Protein 1
Amino acid sequence: MKTIGILGTGIVGRTVGKKLAQLGYNVTLGSRSADNEKAKQWIADVGGTAKSGTFAEAARHADAVFVCTKGDGTVDAVKAAGDLSGKLVIDLTNPLDSSKGMPPPLISQYSNTHSLGEAVQAAVPNARVVKTLNIVNCEVMVDPKKSGGDPTMLLCGDDDGAKAEATNLLKEFGWNDVLDLGDITGARSMEAYVTLWVRVYMTTGNGYNAMKSIR
Amino acid sequence: MKTIGILGTGIVGRTVGKKLAQLGYNVTLGSRSADNEKAKQWIADVGGTAKSGTFAEAARHADAVFVCTKGDGTVDAVKAAGDLSGKLVIDLTNPLDSSKGMPPPLISQYSNTHSLGEAVQAAVPNARVVKTLNIVNCEVMVDPKKSGGDPTMLLCGDDDGAKAEATNLLKEFGWNDVLDLGDITGARSMEAYVTLWVRVYMTTGNGYNAMKSIR
């Protein structure tokens, strides 16, 4: 695996994309329009082989696609990325409903008995979707030591090979403890956990909080 | 605080009640009917000043009431306990919908934008409700070392004094790290977390799993 597409030019996509570029991957940052200003600035910052393009351009030659879009735009972005058959699709998104103030609940349709992870897998049924990384802030995603400890990263998905590939990427980011929650429906609990993360952030002020599974 | 009422004769109520009796509290185990067979066996097991009675009898002289009922019977049980005004009410319950196989989702009406903790507080508005302990199995509740580590216990509620009293009880159980999530709406995230706990149990087989907040 050498070439990675990122969907989304927000802080998550830019941070994860930069880390992947630093690790030696050829990274294309994808957005709705090819002349995205944040993507241009990101290329200037990252240098090397970093490129930008539309969602479809970012995904076309990618071995793996990181989905880093806002929750409510995620399914559309994944569909706009073209044919993702066989590709590893790593879903980092959270279906937070930010229209209701803090703390945000989940977008109702993706809560409890459904999830955005499942919706992503359903949107690209021939892709191999793995949900992971959504449970911490993006700086901790690519450097778990920033949490101040050795936290656990959760992961789920329907394809065991895809989860093994994702685990290797997580290890490159510095995650020593990866916990597989089973099939993609595990995304329900992983996305719900984020409401707890937000609570801890609100009550402690620590945006680098994470959790260690004792098991 | 010397006298404690337990609502519920299931494994949670019996385990927590026994621990409280061992700590020197006068404990009454409450159930729907006064001649509950499990309560009689519990008294024989615990000895000392342990008693049983109806929900209302268990609560009448109690300084603190532990709510240990099944999710779908919780609000009725709390209402049946009589006047809980001013009392510390510790809600350990989880609104799991076990009708749909494993893993259980939350009962829909108590998910995402609502919770059983809030429903308990609304049912007894003059009581001082604290949600806690629901995030581990009952053996770990009263002996957190059984998890194999030094896990974090979460807690939330609208009354700071009640949370301080609950924290003292948690310390008597052995919890060294108690994290206050704020008002009772924090129960939304604490109850949703339990679906993650169940996932970890299903994939690792470890029913003593817990989590440590890194913050």
Protein 2
Amino acid sequence: MRTLLIISHPEIIESGSQQYFLNSIKNQTDITIHHLEHLYPDGRIDVVKEQNLLKKHDRIIFQFPFYWYSGTPLLKKWQDEVLGEGFGYGTRRKPLAGKEFGLIMMIGVAEREYQAGGEELFTISELTKPFQAMANKLGMVYLRPFPVFQFFYMEEEEKKNTLIKYWQMLTMEKDISLATREEWLIKQLQKTAESTTETNTITFAIERIQENRDKIDELKMVLDEMFLE
Amino acid sequence: MRTLLIISHPEIIESGSQQYFLNSIKNQTDITIHHLEHLYPDGRIDVVKEQNLLKKHDRIIFQFPFYWYSGTPLLKKWQDEVLGEGFGYGTRRKPLAGKEFGLIMMIGVAEREYQAGGEELFTISELTKPFQAMANKLGMVYLRPFPVFQFFYMEEEEKKNTLIKYWQMLTMEKDISLATREEWLIKQLQKTAESTTETNTITFAIERIQENRDKIDELKMVLDEMFLE
């Protein structure tokens, strides 16, 4: 599976969360990192090039800061121009049909505010319906959105947990079994070990797999005992 | 009541519906027409000027083509920069609190597709929640959105009906009585008569008022008869 990670952020250098996530996926051959502001500083998008890039990938991800409950100006320009009539819609041919589409959003407000009665009034599922409707129109499979709430207030362990979920969003097959997840995680760790000096993260992740294994083993023992009685 | 009509359209000259609506509100002193692409062709927004303009108006309207279920790139840039920290949010002072906020959207697809089971999957109320959440955050009163579906397929009479609703969205006080509505409409017509040569529209609108009066008179007669029995 090949993933196209379309990042849009007006000031990405200043964003600690964006840098943290991006550093973790450098040198991954199955992920194409595609930062719009870097590629098109004057906002003139190469529509044909973008359309060809989309065709070559199986999973398309938008990554952006969730300002005013929506994407960035350049991401919207990209949507309007690249997914235009004749490519995105208005034709029987749907070049993106069957591909997966997902959102990764950096959010400054706490998760609990995104609900009825909360300060932000609506849930993330409600506020991202314009993107879900877009995936629907394009015939794409819509993935669960991945919102990262208040990255800067996170403890180190929570950051690492979030990083694992980030990798899953980018590279893990949809709805795979628990056993395959474990396999996937080990594969990811091996890849990361080759390209990084951040051994802390890897050690942490391996411990997590170990923990999960222990839990599953315990569960098995309980089941075995139940059937022996 | 003073209304600020913030229009954003990448190619407004080519949009027949935008031109039709704009022509109808020329020379109205209580509406400030504010076309972003015209004012800021290079996308560099004068944030302080915009914030001062907002403060001077009672009703703020965004008018835009509803591409990909959202606003335009420049409108999003305007939101992110003008409604930034310290003005829009992040401060106890809410300079826009109590003002009204509404949406006017030109939509190319038929209204019936905007529902569960329809091609667009969601309703306009669902898809515009990011704007509703913005109004909520700013402490503004959210008006019913005004979507204009498939303007170009409309018959002349339907276009004129839509135009009256457009004027209402821009200048009619919220939740006023039927009698006041009639008064409002007559006032609008008088204003328009002074500044336009489109007498057809005015004649049509006057006929509409007359029709409504007839209906109300009929209703009164029925009620009177009921109480006489």
Protein 3
Amino acid sequence: MFFEGSEKKLEIRVTADVPSLRSLGRPFWQAIVACANAEILSQLSNPQCDAYLLSESSLFVWDDRFVMLTCGTTTLANAALSFISQFGSDKVAFACYQRKNEYLSHLQCSSFDEDLFRLREKLSGKAYRIGHLDSHHHYIFCTDSCCDGVLDDTTSELLMYHISGKTADYLRCNQQSTEGIRALLELDSLLPGFDFDDFLFEPFGYSVNGVCDDRYMTIHITPQENSSYVSFETNLDLGQYPQPVFARLLQILNPGSWDVIGFNAGRNTRGYPDHLCLGSCTLESESGYTIAFSHYQQICHEVLIPEQM
Amino acid sequence: MFFEGSEKKLEIRVTADVPSLRSLGRPFWQAIVACANAEILSQLSNPQCDAYLLSESSLFVWDDRFVMLTCGTTTLANAALSFISQFGSDKVAFACYQRKNEYLSHLQCSSFDEDLFRLREKLSGKAYRIGHLDSHHHYIFCTDSCCDGVLDDTTSELLMYHISGKTADYLRCNQQSTEGIRALLELDSLLPGFDFDDFLFEPFGYSVNGVCDDRYMTIHITPQENSSYVSFETNLDLGQYPQPVFARLLQILNPGSWDVIGFNAGRNTRGYPDHLCLGSCTLESESGYTIAFSHYQQICHEVLIPEQM
């Protein structure tokens, strides 16, 4: 029943002389997604963005950039390399590749080191591991080149591990519905104005994409006991947003530990469950944007249940 | 500079009709150790026990049992299988195989699952993972069969991660001596009556074995920044021992986090640095011995240093 919920993430922004990425159409993106060993399940579009729900996570395409997240044992670096080889490295204005903290990294098709080696054959950039190897840690590679869009943009990621409580129980039961999950997550009130596209996996697992003008949000839920994981990500500027999105999701999903990664985003822990911030750091890229990472743990002692093998 | 300090551990007790294991002599044990891809560096003996210091950790041999610990990317399961195939499964009165929390499990030659599969072709027993996959966790396999020696025996393991402070700095400097390290660890006062045999590795790393009658102790130090690890293990009954061995080692080495594993051993956290016990459990085997695991974290926020790759 193990499934690696934690995602790899790719963002690529192209130079101004590249035609609209949206005009490439669904067959092009189907082929890119296939390079990662995933497939497109459904599509939600508005005048600024195409949001594809994938068999393993999500793809968002704007005219000048795309963001792709894939979980499980997908090969997202292959998708990155396929895109770059079709357009040429000189058309990449900015690229960023991340791997979130994995439960079982030895089951992955490649390590971050191996992905990095291949990406560096096409793109020059800096890579970091943030966080200790025996605790939550994240890998990130960003090109040295940057562009205005990156510096203006804000992205906030909330990665939750070991969810528990009423919502977690519902997510693990066998009588769920997308409406039921959406209601428990309070999506309509937390993110007013967003259009949503969601999918329920068998035997469980839930994904939702949302778009509102050029803003996106996505949630992916792997509810499995002992290795549960829920990610939320958006390019909304949550510091200026009227709803306490992270705090409310933490209250609803009650994770034992969680990480927050922000790109040009402020830190605000108001409303978080009682916690210890075990570690954090802020990384200023040479090109001027700021990456912040924080690893939080609920302050409580847990009686561990040995897992028989 | 990465080295996996955390150990795999094997204990095998043989049935009463097997001749003394000590009488097998050093060439026999050299061959067993070689199966794990390690070698014997030196030997310390007293009337009850032969203590071998290995290129990767330690081997202790008594007449009726042996305990072997190996770190790095050694293949301890191979050593176990070689021993069992030479004597026969029916001569194994009790066996226990553990893998401690690893920093980079994907660099290991095998997973615990794979080791387990092979061990179960020779021995029947129960296996558990204790602790969450995204936090410190340990694997343990024990045979269903048990024997008096196990139930009478106490073993205490202290596994320390991310050491810091004066002793850690000394362990990382390039002008160490075994005498200097022994003095900083206060071995003579903490463990009076023990004979010691220690070794300094290049460029750093330190191992020491100690014996006193049928009691043993061993310490292995991997001081590398970002992946430091120090283990202490003994079959002394620390609950009845006059010295606060664990508390003092924690004060001296100041680890960011540590795990305690006890076999028929009490829990006593007096003198530990300020900490949160993130999780613990007690596992009662059917054959009557008790395994306890606790994962501790110092209560402090750490400013993480991104590691450039």
Protein 4
Amino acid sequence: MWKEEDNKLVRQFEFKNFVEAFGFMTKVAILAEKMDHHPKWTNVYNQVTIELTTHDAGNTITERDRELAAAIDELLA
Amino acid sequence: MWKEEDNKLVRQFEFKNFVEAFGFMTKVAILAEKMDHHPKWTNVYNQVTIELTTHDAGNTITERDRELAAAIDELLA
Amino acid sequence: MWKEEDNKLVRQFEFKNFVEAFGFMTKVAILAEKMDHHPKWTNVYNQVTIELTTHDAGNTITERDRELAAAIDELLA
Amino acid sequence: MWKEEDNKLVRQFEFKNFVEAFGFMTKVAILAEKMDHHPKWTNVYNQVTIELTTHDAGNTITERDRELAAAIDELLA
């Protein structure tokens, strides 16, 4: 589901409504801070787009991006 | 699942871990503020206990408590 | 601080770190749902960009956008 | 401000309203998960009570409680 675009991992998520979308975002926020790796993400109502790249590696996709992507996917499993 | 105890609606929730519990709490918080009716609630790790009563009605259970309880249940449906 | 750009109210916010940024976002999320008016917003680490427009009014800036903008500003007062 | 009661560090916090209280709780939640040390806490409207103890140390107050307490205080500095 994650696509590689311009050296970023990108995935779009759609929820039933804003409340569900923001509940998801809160869980992602906690994981991101714990892994010390933060997404660029955008939300509009029930839609969330997450972009992952590693600034410290010259904005390329690294293992840290793949680990955060996997942890996010796990939330929805 | 909600029990009436001492003029309160009380329900305990258990989640897989803290992240799931707090994601749920965030959704409940948004609903509670929207309904202008706030719980007394306690969290320890993966457990959340919610108590609902209506202060403006002399701490009795009213329709407002039943509506918030139903909205919370809906989150888990 | 809010600028009008392409029929949207836009403002950028900067915080000390991600934790402060997401704490702010949670407060905005609660207000947005309460006002039934949701932003398009983007976060990267300590930065939050909020865009407000009213879809039901043909994506123009309306009183609803100004009210949410004022409520957000109030959070930072 | 933190008191030692029954082998727990306990502090009560009061905010302007529920939105401010829950914004604070979200920041504490992120820190708690990051430190892998979770509070027992209770919220009613604008009030938050946090209790810290270390289960793995026989429910006594340890350095982990003091570190989380300090990180929480830092949020309010």
